[in-house]
Amino acid sequence: MKFLIDEDLSPKVAERLRSDEGLDVVHIRDRGLLGESDAVVLQRAYDEDRIFVTANAKDFQRFVKINSLIPKISRIIMWLIVGILVLATIGAIYQAISTKSDQRNYPALGQLVDVGGYKLHIYCMGEGSPTVILDAAADMMSSDWAWIQPEIAKHTRVCSYDRAGMGWSDSSNQPRDAKQVAFELRTLLINAGISVPYIMVGHSAGGLYARMYAAEYPDEVVGMVLVDPGHPDMDTRIPALQAQNASDASLVNTMRVLSYFGLPRLLGVGKNNAEGLPQQQATEVNVFVSRPQHWATILNLINSTSATYDEVRATGSLGNMPLVVISANTAWFTKGAPADDARKILNDLQSEIAGLSTNSSHRIIDSATHGSLVHNQNDAQAVIFAIEDVLTSLQTGQPLTK
């Protein structure tokens, strides 16, 4: 047996035990521990596997209690880690199986068209010209136009599509700024055989992309409807949006990670994104919101926001192109609440967008929210009427009614 003698006892005790009894005994002075805390001395005895001899029994009892708990705590931590790993593995398997099932149960409605090493999804209905092109909000897809597309198809050809990484479209390793998005859309329309001219309809961020397309390819666009569109100066004019964007980026990145383990799917996160849509399209939205690709793409869009704003800010006038800008009239930060200061500023900015054309109309829809303008069947009527009005203006040569 080995012993460590505390300073409460004389070093001579250690010497006597060594010389007379032949025991392995050291005093804390022999270890240079004089003046050290009780915890340090006790830890040394524990580390050297020595019996600690002390007149201070309370410290010894406390030390024994703490060290007896360490193995128990270690076992608890180990089983927690094992449990987390097991749940993560089960979640990953659940996500993989569900994704395979989704591919069988929800095939693409339209065609998948190669645009340079990856494919984009486009879904067209109806006949006639000009063709209406529907460009969804940043976190939305072609299914989000369910209330609007069939109604427009009664009058002309109308196509909804999924940007790279959204819906049925493949991901792209290209940046997600407005010029790249517009370039990919044009490549898609050419390769899919969708003839010009076009009426561009963009919701939210899709409004920025629609403006970019018209600026890059002005001979192809004859009319435009912008549904509660983004504005390149909205972050500077509404400072609170900057904090929201940072928070959104953090949340989106968290959802991206969790989606590998099936948590967004299990919690039905996509149901909130699809509230108000017909059952089939709501299910499709929920399916695709559950995929890591969806969240990774949105994160890339957020990271490209500054570049998109700079590009769209540099675009010019739309001349006398028929242009309808639709604004919601409820709070931006609190869904469904009365219009807040942010909403009032945004609607002023959207009025500026309407001023880009001498043949324009700015329509504010009371009680509508940013999402309900496409997801709510009644609110979506405002978008349908706006597209029909642009078609009528083009067919008759008459200016839009305000």
Could you please describe the fold and organization of this structure?
This protein has 402 residues and is α/β, with parallel strands linked by helices. It is built from 16 helices and eleven strands. The protein has an eight-stranded mixed sheet, with helices on both faces. Strands 2-1-3 form a three-stranded parallel sheet, sandwiched between helices. Strand 6, helix 4 and strand 7 form a beta-alpha-beta unit. Helix 8 packs antiparallel against helix 12. It starts with a strand and ends in a 6-residue tail after the last helix. The mean pLDDT is 87.
The CATH architecture assignment of the largest domain turns out to be 3-Layer(aba) Sandwich
Largest sheet: 8 strands, mixed
Number of distinct beta strands: 11
Oligomer: single chain
Structural class: alpha/beta
Portion of residues in helices? 40-55%
Mean pLDDT: 87
As for the CATH topology of the largest domain, it is Rossmann fold
Provide the CATH superfamily of the largest domain.
Alpha/Beta hydrolase fold, catalytic domain
Radius of gyration: 33 Å
Strand composition percent: 5-15%
Main sheet strand line-up: 4-5-7-6-8-9-10-11
Main CATH class of the largest domain = Alpha Beta
How far apart the termini lie comes to 99 Å
Q: In total, how many domains does the architecture comprise?
A: 2
